[in-house]
Amino acid sequence: MPGLKFLPMKKILRCIETSNSFMFVRHPIGRVLSAYKNKVLRKLPYRMKALVRLILEYHGMKNQNPEIANVTFPQFVDWITNTGSVNNHWRSFIDICHPCNINYTFTGRVETLASDLYHIMKKFYGERIASEWYEKQPRLNQKPMPIKSSPEE
Fold first, then answer.
1. Contact, 73 vs 67, CB < 8 A?
2. Which of 78, 85, 142, 147 is least surrounded by Cβ atoms within 10 Å, i.e. has the fewest?
3. DSSP character for 61?
4. CB proximity list for 2: less than 8 A, separation 6 or greater
5. Reported confidence tier of residue 82, pLDDT bands at 50, 70, 90
6. Threshold 0.85, pTM exceeds
């Protein structure tokens, strides 16, 4: 809820208790794989080049150009697990969404995003609007981007 942090704690708790809330979770391996595809394989903006550079340095390949270097998925996972790198793309949901402290009205899964969003829309806006929205969501059915498991691929 925007601006909630500026309210007194009593009011924040009341808002949380009386509001409908939802969160979406994703299988941990799916999250890490998605982060790898998005943050390492694409290598577009400067900040992603910096991430690739950190991974290369960790693996003793600091002289490689991050724009053309091939960081494999196993190298990425090794870097995450051994450096303690914390990023919202692979950080635990417990640390991000606090499901133990917030009683979410609905918990959906990214793997069933379209269906779960349809049910949320249906609850808040009715079946007609939810159905119209659902039919206009081609992005939710995109084909997955292939990944490399080794530099030779």
1. no
2. 142
3. -
4. none
5. very high
6. no
CB 33 within 8 A of CB 147: yes
Number of Cβ within 10 Å of residue 90's Cβ equals: 19
Q: Which amino acid is at 86?
A: V
The distance from CA 124 to its chain's CA centroid, rounded to whole angstroms, is: 24
DSSP codes joined into one string, 117-146 = HHHHHHHHH-HHHHHHHHHT-GGGGPPPPP
Specify the pairing of strand 106-109 against strand 22-25.
Answer: parallel
What CA dihedral angle connects 33, 36, 42 and 45, to 10 degrees? 140
What is the sign of the dihedral through the CA atoms of 34, 40, 44 and 50? positive
Asked if residue 137 has pLDDT above 80, the reply is: no
